[in-house]
Amino acid sequence: MTTPNKVYLKDYTPPVFCVKKVDLDIRLYEDHAIVDATLTMKRLHEGLLVLFGRKLELQAIELNGKVLSGSDYTLDEEQLIIHHAPDDAIVRTLVKIIPHTNTELEGLYQAGTGMDAMFVTQCEPEGFRKITFYPDRPDVLAEFITRVEADKKYPTLLANGNLIEKGDLGDRHFAIWHDPTLKPSYLFACVIANLDVMQDTYTTCEGREVLLEIYATKQDLDKCHVAMQALKDSMKWDEDNYGCAYDLDRYMIVATGQFNMGAMENKGLNIFNTSCVLATPQTATDESIFRVKLVVAHEYFHNWTGNRVTCRDWFQLCLKEGLTVFREQGFSGDFRSKAVQRIEDVAFLKAHQFTEDAGPLAHPVRPESFVEINNFYTMTIYEKGAEIVRMIANLLGREKYRQGTDEYFRRHDGQAVTIEDFLSALSIGDERVLDFLAWYRQPGTPEVFGGFDINGNQVTINLSQKTRHVAGFDAPTALPIPVDTAIFDGESGELLAQKMLLLNKDADSFVFEDLPLNGVRPVISVLRNFSAPVKLNFEYSNEDLMKLVAFETEGFNRWQAVQTLINRLLLGESDDLSLLTDTLRTVIPTLMQDDPMLAARLFDIPSEQELAMAYEVNYDPSFVKAKRDELKKGIAAALSEVVGGWYQALPIVPYEDTPKARGQRLLRNVLLNLALAADLPQVKSWAYQQYDDASCMSERLGALSAMISFNLEKADVYVADFYDKFRDEELVIDSWFAVQARADVRDVAFIKSLMMRDDYDWNVPNRVRTTLNALAAKPTQLWSEEGLTLYFDALARLDAINPTVASRVLSQLGRWYTLDESRKAIVKEKLIALQGVAKSKNVLEFVNNMLNA
Ligand code: BES
Ligand code: ZN
To answer: What are the Aminopeptidase N-like N-terminal domain coordinates in residue numbering (predicted)?
Structure first.
């Protein structure tokens, strides 16, 4: 059953020709660019010489120095086939492209306009074919020499590798770069711009002195310190933890305001969305600053996991992304409490990846087919992919995991490989690693059910697993599921036993013997630190959960216990709110001192999107929202005598970037919202005061968000003040859009009015996402007739401008089919209409999958 225009993993064949060397000459003019490329190729197998190319105007072509005529090759929309190619083929093409009107932000494109105009590339996954004809697939590795030529109004001319020459041509100039490392075309990059640069150096453990450069506009240059420090920290961390040192003399990062993703790991020349590189305490919240650090680390870590060892084909995307996310989570965890790091990663996984896995866009971590590869940069590939590596790393333990990754780099440096290669290298110390391949092949979130029996001094833990059967895939099989389990004394809270259980059948029992129980019911803690990405249904009583919060020594499961109780309250399985609020009242004061960030996170309530997952049919967004609002109010009321004091105990102090200070700021914002919900006397003035006295953006934006959410009289004044203060800071204005759009009290008409403003630029993905993501996070508004109209109108518009962004926006509607019949009918009608007007493969693939749900 092969559907046309679908690509299948099973159809993989190795490349017919390899490319020894690429000589690229990119010349930029006022309204177009000319790309002159010479590919030195060598035959590896029987077959045709095929070069991919999209939207290229072919102006000349030569083979081994001889000009080709139309009958020597075949050219269509997607590829160029050269007939009768000899085994040694030097192919030269001259093409014209128009970066100036490229709104897809893939290939070479213009970002910004006027004085700020610059030209940057985005090649992953298949953008290089929009620059020149090329065997644009990750398993073709070549040496690149890139000459970039442009008008002198663009003094910054960059490409991968080392600068080997610069030259003056009157009004124009050029630079020649040489990248000695063999790389796939998706890692190619060049930049033509007028940027300032921040420089620093780093000496690797191998003694190499590396020049570090971050390029940004003059106005933004002072916002690069956080990223620069993060880069140095990442370089050190990778040496210490994986034995990986940097391999070129230069590492460059370029910031652009127009970028589809967060950032891109091009060899030696990363290109970053400004939102992921520019940050100061005055212009970015703690979360944004933390994100800058982790994105810098992520892209840097790709130098080994992705660039030096790359993917054989795009089905293996998780090979680099899952592993690199896992590495980056480890790095981030070293800069704050481990518990908070894990809570954040798991909360994100549950809110986004579990939802994806539960809907019509569910797919295995290693997909077996796709129509548009851009649609597969998903939560499943990234986050579930990272969880699989984490399970393996935990199973192996520190030492064997390190042996395994050393072996992986030793075997595969300079190669394009598969998940099987990765698992094989990691399994040298423990063959059980190979069983984890099943996790890469099967979609759907496994559910684990469990309980326990007590018999004298013996406790038996009974576990079973079940994964839903996703249409179009084989029936699910049992997966290896590590379940980290601890047993605590039910009275003293003493830790009696701990073990990593491995459930690798449909059901199994695990016995703990000789426990000093003394007739007291123990407290069992399973899936500690979220040892596997599963939905857990364990027979905890509500009292067990609250004892867990008190006894657990592992912060993640303390948080999880509170979450489980909150879920029970929200789903009507429990109505005893006091159990929760009594616990919070007891634990918060101590935690406020020890780990204020964890204290803040204990107030987490699952998002409406996440709660919607409990429904397979007749999902009613208003009901879910009402339950959630009621719970928030209930918690605030029950804690009303204490929250004011807690808030006051956290006065604003001079800014510091430490885990404790960040935790205090987050907790202060959480408490401000609680105090407003409890309607404490004077509380409004606290909000205004916090804004006025703010030492940093987290405090300021936290206060503004609270003022808007609670409709305070002066909210509008502050909204205007914020805009005035930061009108020249694009990223801050993005938060200005987002903070308003996200507030429940701002309706669809209001969001629409934001989208009609002159400063709402449809060509800038960051700006577009502010309102659409906000709407998607408010299901009662999203799934209304008005909300859907706004959302689908935007989708149709984006489909024509930027298909990658459009299909990501669309993917947030995955679970539409769980709505009640009348709402479902509206969505269906709109999906069909979109199917009729959409042009991009990206949007069409998702619409089709969604309509088949
Ligand atoms: N390789 C990706 C960037 C990318 C993805 C480019 C898809 C083109 C298409 C990069 O390494 C990445 O994963 N970036 C993430 C951030 C990261 C911290 C998870 C992103 O851009 O969101
Ligand atoms: Zn990545």
So the answer is: 96-187
Q: Which of 261, 270, 301 to mutate to test the pocket of ligand 1 (most atoms within 8 A of CB)?
A: 261
The reported pLDDT for the residue numbered 853 is: 79
Q: CB within 8 A of 98, min separation 6: which ones? A: 31, 32, 33
Is pLDDT at 2 greater than 90 in this prediction? no
CB 683, CB 710: distance < 8 Å: no
Helices (H), 162-224: none
For 582-611, write each residue's pLDDT tens digit: 999 999 999 999 999 999 999 999 999 999
Alpha-carbon distance of 300 to 404, in angstroms, equals: 21
Give the Cα-Cα-Cα angle 669, 224, 180 (nearest 5 degrees): 135
Cα-Cα-Cα-Cα dihedral sign, residues 536, 540, 543, 549: negative
The dihedral over CA atoms of 799, 803, 808, 813, expressed in degrees to the nearest 10, equals: 30
Could you give the percent of the chain with pLDDT greater than 70? 100
Beta strands of 339-468 (E only): which ranges? Answer: 369-370, 416-417, 447-455, 458-466
Residue 794 has pLDDT above 50, yes or no: yes
Cα(502) to centroid of ligand 1, in Å?
A: 33
- Which ligand is closest to the CA of 186, given by its number? 1
The DSSP bridge partners found for residue 191 are 120, 158
537 torsion bin: left (phi>0), alpha (psi -120 to 50), beta (else): beta
Residue with CA closest to ligand 1 atom 8: 124
Digit-coded pLDDT (tens) for 234-267:
999 999 999 999 999 999 999 999 999 999 999 9
Query: In this structure, are residues 132 and 35 in contact, taking their beta carbons and an 8 Å threshold?
Result: yes
C-alpha 391 – ligand 2 centre gap (Å): 19
CB-count exposure of residue 651 (10 Å: 0-12, 13-18, 19+): exposed
Q: Whose CA is nearest to atom 7 of ligand 1?
A: 377
Catalytic residues: 299
Give the number of the ligand closest to the Cα of residue 295.
Answer: 1
Residue nearest to atom 1 of ligand 1 (CA): 264
| Residue 427 one-letter amino acid | S
What is the residue-averaged pLDDT of the chain?
97
745, pLDDT greater than 50: yes
Q: What is the reported pTM?
A: 0.98
- Average the pLDDT over 45-63 and give the result: 98
Measured CA to CA in angstroms, residue 103 lies from 583, 758, 768 at distances of 53, 18, 13
Ligand nearest, relative to CA of residue 261: 1
Ligand 1 centroid to 378 CA: how many Å? Answer: 10
CA dist., res. 42 & res. 20, Å (int): 7
The protein residue with its alpha carbon nearest to ligand 1, atom 15, reads: 262
Confidence band, pLDDT 50/70/90 cuts, at residue 681: very high
Tokens 């009402």 map to which residue?
A: 626
Provide the pLDDT confidence category of residue 3 given band limits of 50, 70 and 90: low
Asked if 778 and 784 count as a contact pair (C-beta separation under 8 A), the reply is no
